[in-house]
Amino acid sequence: MKKVCLFFALLISASVFSQKKFDTVKSEKLGADRRITIGLPASYETSPSKKYPVLYLLDGDYLFDPFSGALTYGIYWDDLPEMIIIGIHQNHDGERYDDSTIDQNQGLPFEKGAEFFEFIGAELVPYIEKQYRTAPFKIIAGHDITASFINFFLYKEIPLFNGYICLSPELAPKMEIRIPEKFAKVKEPFFYYLSAADGDITKIKEPIEKLAGNIKIANNPLVNLKYDVFKNSTHYSEVLYSIPNALYHIFEVYKPINSVEFKDKIAVLQSGYANYLENKYNTMSEVLGVDIPVRINDFKVVENLILKRNAYEELEKMAEIANVDYPLAMLGEYELGLMYEKRGDPKRASKRYQNASQMQPIGELTRDMMYEKIDEMNTLAKNSK
């Protein structure tokens, strides 16, 4: 089944990532040019005002395609947002080892490693942000030594990236202590994904386990940690298990409301259902840099619960949400009509349904439906006199 899903993802990748191209970044820090692969979403050309989160991949030579495939599949089902992918090439003459050079005593980038660190922060990221429409939300990922290397960006007073995907990292000295100390102090949301294989050697696994444990002890609710250990996997095969888990972890709030979210997070509320919906999409925008209108299916899920719980006053908030995201559609006026109807005020309900009938249909809401509601409310109003 997993092979079928992977095949399907690769099959549709051309349509989801319409542009895959190569570029060369001239670097004063490295004293050489560095080749990169760029993946632009299918909507990039047709949505000229849209901005996209960016995923930077160290070891882009072999991580680009599996990340692209996982994103393709998630985007197809609207579980993951469209993103710009930047793969950094590092496979030339041991380049990845030179790029990851550290001082073993200090546990910090050293010589060529320090140059590569500066290249990413001072040259590559500004270059991409100048050339493309990027949202503020940035993720960086790597595998083994490069997975360790990306953590150095966390050492900065203001970390450059918002999300970190560390696949079986060969952690630098003191890293299992320094990262939790940093996370204990952060005041903005961070996403941290950490994975290992049960086939990893002890030298790799033990520091990873200490790191995960220390992050949990730091217990900062702003740090969204997920730690996976995959059974029956190797240092290399665990990458394919990790990638979708990492992406779905970071973009958990982006997914449409499913049965688990509804049961565990919405249905347990005593009130504030409309606020939950608003906060979900505000988080997408403010934290992830993803601006999309509230999905109609999500809207209906919350509306149905409001009706079931007789929380009719919340329909006014639902109308506010609808008027922001769908100002030309009849959804907002319909919600107000529904509120007045449920409150037993058919005259006001009829007026709102009349307003809705002059606006654009949306979802299951049509003009014929509004006309039927108007007739129904007018009849109720006459009978109540």
Descriptive report:
By secondary structure, this protein is an alpha/beta fold. The protein folds into two domains: 2-254, Rossmann fold (3-Layer(aba) Sandwich); 259-383, Serine Threonine Protein Phosphatase 5, Tetratricopeptide repeat, CATH 1.25.40.10. The chain is 49% helix and 17% strand. It has an eight-stranded mixed sheet with strand order 1-2-4-3-7-8-9-10, sandwiched between helices. Strands 5-6 form a two-stranded antiparallel sheet. α1 crosses α2, α2 packs across α8 (238-250) and α6 (175-183) packs parallel to α7. The longest helix has 20 residues, at 112-131. The chain is elongated. The termini are far apart. Residues 1-14 have low confidence and may be disordered.
Features:
Rossmann fold; transferase; about 375 residues; Mycobacterial_A85_antigen; 10 strands; two-stranded antiparallel sheet; 2 domains; Esterase-like; disordered N terminus; alpha/beta
In short:
With 385 residues, the protein is α/β, with parallel strands linked by helices.
Task: Note the run of SSEs as H and E.
Answer: HEEEHEHEEHEHEHEHEHHHHHHHH
CATH fourth-tier homologous superfamily of the largest domain: Alpha/Beta hydrolase fold, catalytic domain
Measured by DSSP, the beta-strand proportion falls in 15-25%
CATH-level-2 architecture of the largest domain: 3-Layer(aba) Sandwich
Q: Which spans of ≥5 residues are poorly predicted at pLDDT below 50?
A: 1-14
